[in-house]
Amino acid sequence: MANILIFDSGMGGLSVYREVHRALPAHQYFYLFDNACFPYGELGEARLVERVLELLTAFVPDHNVDIVVIACNTASTHVLPALRERLHIPVVGVVPAIKPAAAYCRSQGLNHIGLLATPGTVSRSYTAELVQSFAADMRVSMLGTTELVKMAEDKLAGQAVDMIRLTRILAPWRSDDGPHALVLGCTHFPLLADELSQCLPRAQLVDSGQAIARRVASLLLQTPAAGQMHQQSVPGRLYCTELTEKAKTQAGAFAREGFAALECLVI
Q: Is 186 part of the annotated catalytic residue set?
């Protein structure tokens, strides 16, 4: 059995956890969210790198983690090189799913991809490079928003999604000329999949969750701990960095996924 850590600044990594756990149920899962510094999109790059290194270089050895999944596009962009230098285990990051979206469009004879992400992801050069590499022959439109991150967090805390507000955000794409494939370029956004489909019923939603699960499975084949499999799922362990009332409420969503009571990481 391997110890797998899912890490995010908030609860959006739950969408990634679901896909990895579905593919690999017989392992021990840890989920750590840095709610004390949420959202990461508002941190400077130097502070972000410092913060993630501080947390994970403490957490990983203390919990005998075998593989880390950085379930956050912002953190993946900035932190992976430094983290891989400091940790001697596999570290998996996330990128917007431009490649599978383009494959879907080609298979259906379609040509319009929409990327829904945070403003930072939309503006970064690596996003443009993904488009150039995998969808240069297609129309790619982008919409950057941080509002959906907070909406997803509130949904996990039991609040209803404001569909009027969501419709307003997605207004540029609510026409016959809207995207055929919608790339959910933030791990929070699949948590709003039902609501997004209501607003954009013509669009095929595409995210990175299944690709991450395949990558983790591939890396675990090279990990000795993976050979000792449990017959049944074991309870996940959930950690935050600040034990707020909101975090306690959001932990209910993880309890339904099989996680034990929320704990606070102290370093």
A: yes
Domain count, the chain: 2
We report the CATH number of the domain holding residue 134 as 3.40.50.1860
Please tell me whether residue 57 adopts helix, strand or coil conformation: helix
CB 148 within 8 A of CB 188: yes
Is there a single domain that holds both residue 11 and residue 107?
no
Residues 126 and 153 in one domain: yes
Catalytic residue among 72, 105, 199, 240: 72
pLDDT (tens place) for every residue of the chain, 267 residues total:
899 999 999 999 999 999 999 999 999 999 999 999 998 878 888 999 999 999 999 999 999 999 999 999 889 988 999 999 999 999 999 999 999 999 999 999 999 999 999 888 898 888 999 999 999 999 999 999 989 999 999 998 889 999 999 999 999 999 999 999 999 999 999 999 999 999 999 999 999 999 999 999 999 988 765 555 555 678 999 999 999 998 999 899 999 999 999 999 988
Q: Distance (Å, rounded) from C-alpha 24 to C-alpha 69?
A: 14
88 and 216 together in one domain? yes
Angle, to 10 degrees, between the axis of helix 73-86 and the axis of helix 45-62? 60
How many helices (H) and strands (E) the chain has is answered by: 11, 10
Assign 88 to helix, strand or coil.
Answer: coil
Catalytic residue, from 37, 105, 186, 199: name it.
186
Residue 259 sits at the vertex; the CA angle it makes with 256 and 265, to the nearest 5 degrees, is 135
**239 strand-pairing partners:** 32, 263
| Contact criterion met (CB below 8 Å) for 133 and 106 | no
